[in-house]
């Protein structure tokens, strides 16, 4: 059997006819940039999250950047974020010339470590960016408590966690302003590039609407230096269709993940431990083991796709060499980079494929 790490075609084929109909409507109305479909998506997604406002953007990277920008983060400020994430979490800080301070992650949950966050707070710290890595919520309560104690902003990076919950509340409703990516491979993915912020604060929502649209409050009234970070009409229309399926898809991901966790009994393998109160959406399913090279050869031999998330932590990337982080400065992140492997998880995997993956892993 041959099982790809991820197969977007299965979902695209399922949605194709409906998508074509909605795309046609956008063409008929010629609302290609923002417009009715994007406004509808903003309403639908804010309702889904239970957040007062959603502002639709052109990527998750833009969402993180405008989130920080709306809080007036500048060169003087330090922002704490985990090194164990996709690098875009860090870009947002760099774009504003603020200082990145990397925190390590917890050994068992692989989520931002509240103890390390506490150690890294200085007089200049202004915000913490928490990342719900792999679609599992981080320890929101402990991070929120720290942010309140030191009067810091909390920003949630929800790029991998659409629909995940923390004590029955959706992620993306705990931070002051939070970022989502709708990159095609995400649990809720566009047919291109897209992102959004969520917030309960009207002033922040209004400011981000101005910033995304060339700094315009109204046409040709530019109140500050702005950007072109608007969502396209096509993406809004497609996201409206896909949002209706999100809970069903997430449920199927949970079903597969639960099967992996109950049926993979190979003692060499460990799983990510879930934070108490967290209900994850398994954007990725990542296993940890010592002998990674032999393991991936075994997967290859049996036709199973895999990936590394991530092969190198951000603090050791060349782009951040100027920050002078040395090896062993964030030992858990560095260890995870050497010992983790992502195995296939997407809603369209068949039961037969899931069983085959479990058998192959148990026979390693
Ligand atoms: C954790 C995380 N943050 C930010 C991003 C950036 O989102 P985008 O690719 O939409 O810019 C991604 C995904 O790519 C991500 O996984």
Written account of the structure:
There is one protein chain. Helices cover 40% and strands 16% of the residues. The protein is α+β, with helices and mostly antiparallel strands. Strands 3-2-4-5 form a four-stranded parallel beta sheet, with helices on both faces. Strands 1-9-8 form a three-stranded antiparallel beta sheet. Strands 7-6-13 form a three-stranded antiparallel beta sheet, with no helix packed on it. The longest helix has 31 residues, at 233-263. The protein is globular, with a radius of gyration of 20 Å. The two termini are 17 Å apart. The model has no long low-confidence stretch (mean pLDDT 98). It binds pyridoxal-5'-phosphate. Pyridoxal-5'-phosphate (PLP) binds at residues 59-61, 85-86, 88-89, 131, 157, 159-160, 181, 183, 195.
Please sum up the structure shown.
The protein is of the alpha+beta class. It has helices at residues 8-29, 36-49, 60-70, 88-95, 114-120, 140-149, 202-212, 233-263, 292-301, 331-339, 351-362; strands spanning 53-57, 78-82, 99-103, 125-131, 153-157, 165-166, 169-170, 178-181, 195-199, 216-218, 221-222, 270-271, 278-279, 285-288, 340-343.
